[in-house]
Specification:
Layout lengths: L20 H14 L10 E7 L2 E7 L2 E4 L3 E3 L5 H5 L9 E10 L13 E3 L4 E6 L2 E6 L30 H14 L8 E11 L6 E4 L5 E5 L5 H18 L21 H13 L23 H6 L2 E6 L2 E7 L21 H11 L1 E5 L4 E6 L3 H8 L10 E8 L5 E11 L2 E6 L4 H15 L5 E4 L4 E7 L3 H8 L14 E6 L2 E6 L8 E7 L3 H12 L4 E4 L1 H11 L33 H7 L5 E8 L11 E4 L2 E12 L4 E9 L8 E6 L2 E8 L14
Parallel strand pairs: 4-11, 14-24
Antiparallel strand pairs: 1-2, 2-3, 5-8, 5-9, 6-7, 7-8, 10-11, 12-13, 14-20, 15-18, 15-19, 16-17, 17-18, 20-23, 21-22, 22-23, 25-28, 25-30, 26-27, 26-29, 27-28, 29-30
Helix pairs in contact: 7-12, 10-11
């Protein structure tokens, strides 16, 4: 049946299966009724009421239902439902087409495997004695229904389909005939064009929103049946306990930042992902739609000087500068080398040997204030963060189970004022979590404000960082007057700046926070002044390499809600003196039960770069998987990080890691790979 012309490889999944959606839904409904669940069919929701920022009731055309939790499982209707409580859910109803052929298969041919041919954008599965065939068109089309929101759906649209669009389906139809020649002659029984809810990154949209008790479980991108019961389970756990019982960050609605409050941005990003759904996506691939959107004050300078930009949460960020490229001698093998640039190594070495200037303006930043601000932060942070004005603290915030919910720095800027800095992608998540804790712990008098866009941030790091700063400011920036983790207001040239002596690259230096209107001038002044000291403008790819060598953790990489500070090597950031903070009891109960530890794995060939999720074995036993990886240009080795059973955590122990079918020896390292004593950062 299949024409194998051009096929060089395929994968058979014997566990693939099919399920009747109607029967599945009825089976689940039957089980729910037995558990006491009530269903109200033919009932329209008119309003969702809130009290003090939390759901309080649902008003329907048949009466009002008092409740403190609403789970929005509206599929493509989810955005309209969410607007009732002022929440934006980034789901776009996309026109998705497929056809069902007339019966032509041998009736004895049952349970044929599903067939997906990504190069031809098509998929097949058996439908009785015919085939169901569909695909993902390059000329996608949202179902806008003529509305400006792009996700409004007419109130009377129930159980209906959209008009057939054969012209848009032509490429899919032609491709199906190439792979399954019978499609040229078999008749079409049904051609279906139905709207389906898609998200901007083709992942589910789950979790609690900024409105207390208002959850979402929607945006299944044509894969809802596959998630079905599993999604119900994890969302039910989330509702019951107040947090997910596993790491669901890639599906968490809080991954969508402020940019996704724009319907047009959401539409462009959703269309791009729909149209490239079947493409081969190499690690490090960047989205191209709706760019640029959010930019640093120094963005024009970066563009003029040959920056290659990446994008995160709508922010344009420098990956590296094209003119720093040299040769490909260090280019990684395989997929890791697809988007690699030699400029990263050059910028890495600049930060290690002279100085690097990094634009980190995209970092999420929050202002926290009020008489009880310190009390609140000490209650939600694992570390002691009230240390006096001018002190910065690295800390985690924990789940009730002791997992790592947030990873950020807190700086005390006044008696009752604090400043939080976290990763670019985590702003909505972290601020949302803090506001939830504020509401639930009774700290409504504490002010929490997102000041990300109001402040630019530049990092100056390297052995010559102090020499450069001394040229720029009249303030004393010696080690004695400005020690590590101190934060002071200084002037650089004519510009008022908050300087915090901290590092994410393992070198002496400072982060400078400045009102955005001063940003361009500050960048130019630092860069020009630093030229006599070998200062180089550097990008985020260099930061990644530098921090891997130093062993600095990244939330979503080496740490998440399923890891705790003990096993992640972050016990130093947990206060042993505080008797009460969120997750404390669970965390200390877990300490004597620890079974694994995060370690570094090094590979002698610096080009053999792990990307994450590669299996690790000792003998024939799989003992873990790589969490993150990259190149260590100062140590001339490839690096990976992984959690290993304690029995395997021995300095110098040998393990094997699989790279595309080849098992390669890696060496376990329990100590910091670069400057383990921290001499450079404290010099």
């Amino acid at each position: 049946m299949i024409d194998l012309d051009g096929v060089v490889g395929a994968c058979y999944l014997p566990s693939d299966g099919q399920v009747d959606p109607s029967q599945l839904a009825q089976a689940m409904a039957t089980g729910a009724r037995k558990a006491g669940v009530q269903f109200f069919t033919h009932t329209r929701v008119l309003e969702i009421r809130t009290t003090a920022g939390r759901v309080s009731s649902v008003v329907t055309d048949k009466g009002e239902i008092e409740c403190d939790v609403v789970v929005n499982c509206g599929g493509m209707y989810a955005p309209s439902i969410a607007r009732m409580v002022g929440v934006r859910v980034p789901i776009i109803p996309m026109s998705h087409q497929y056809l069902i052929t007339e019966n032509f298969l041998d009736p004895a041919a049952k349970h044929l495997p599903s067939l997906r041919d990504p190069d031809n954008l098509i998929y097949f599965r058996q439908e009785v004695s015919g085939l169901l065939m569909g695909g993902y068109e390059r000329n996608s089309k949202p179902w806008t229904a003529g509305h400006t929101h792009f996700d409004d759906i007419p109130a009377d649209f129930n159980g209906r389909l959209l008009s057939e669009e054969w012209d848009r389906f032509e490429e899919i139809a032609v491709n199906s005939q190439k792979r399954v020649p019978a499609m040229e002659r078999v008749g079409v029984k049904n051609f279906i064009n139905g709207p389906e809810g898609f998200t901007p990154d083709n992942e589910f949209c789950l979790g609690e929103t900024e409105v207390g008790g208002f959850f979402v479980a929607a945006g299944f991108c044509a894969h809802g049946i596959a998630g079905a019961g599993g999604i119900g389970k994890v969302v039910a756990e989330w509702v019951a306990t107040g947090e997910p019982q596993m790491d669901l960050w890639h599906m968490d609605i809080r991954r969508f930042g402020a940019a996704y409050k724009s319907p047009s941005f959401t539409l462009k990003r959703t269309q791009e992902n729909y149209e490239s759904y079947y493409d081969l996506h190499y690690p490090g691939e960047e989205r191209t739609s709706a760019r640029p959107l959010k930019t640093s004050p120094a963005y024009p300078w970066h563009a003029e000087h040959g920056a290659v930009f990446g994008e995160k949460s709508g922010w344009e960020r420098v990956n590296y500068y094209k003119h720093h490229e040299t040769d490909d001698a260090l280019k990684p093998y395989g997929w890791a080398g697809h988007y690699w640039s030699s400029a990263v190594a050059v910028e890495h070495h600049a930060a290690r040997t002279s100085a690097g200037l990094f634009d980190e303006s995209s970092f999420a930043k929050f202002s926290v204030g009020g008489v009880r601000a310190g009390e609140f932060l000490n209650l939600v942070c694992a570390n002691q963060v009230v240390k006096g004005v001018g002190k910065a603290t690295y800390t985690q915030a924990l789940t009730k189970r002791g997992g790592i919910e947030c990873d950020f720095t807190v700086t005390q800027t006044g008696e009752h004022s604090f400043f939080i800095v976290t990763g670019t992608a985590f702003g909505t998540h972290d601020l949302g979590w803090l506001k939830k804790q504020r509401r639930e712990l009774g700290f409504d008098d504490v002010m929490l404000e997102d000041v990300t866009g109001a402040l630019a941030c530049f990092g100056l790091w390297g052995p010559n960082a102090r020499k450069i700063l001394e040229k720029l400011t009249p303030q004393d920036v010696s080690n004695e007057s400005f020690p590590f983790m101190a934060s002071h207001e200084i002037t650089i040239g004519d510009i008022p700046v908050r300087a915090t002596r901290i590092t994410y690259v393992g070198e002496l230096g400072w982060e400078f926070y400045v009102s955005a209107e001063f940003g361009a001038a500050l960048w130019n002044l630092i860069f020009q002044t630093g030229q006599e000291f070998g200062l180089m403008a550097c990008g985020y790819k260099a930061i990644e390499s530098l921090r891997l060598e130093k062993g600095y953790r990244a939330w979503g990489g080496e740490i998440n809600t399923e890891t705790n500070p003990w096993e992640a090597g972050l016990g130093f950031a947990v206060s042993k003196k505080k008797t009460n903070f969120v997750g404390r009891d669970a965390l200390f109960a877990a300490q004597p039960k620890q079974t694994r530890q995060l370690v570094a794995l090094t590979f002698a060939d610096v080009r053999r770069v792990p990307l994450g999720n590669e299996p690790i074995r000792v003998g024939e036993e799989i003992i873990g998987r790589v969490k993150s990886g990259g190149q260590g240009y100062s140590i001339d080795k490839a690096i990976g990080y992984a959690y290993l059973p304690l029995v395997n955590v021995t300095e110098g122990a040998q393990v094997e890691v699989e790279f595309f079918g080849e098992w390669v020896t890696g060496t376990v390292t329990t100590s910091t790979l670069f400057d383990g004593e921290g001499i450079r950062i404290k010099s």
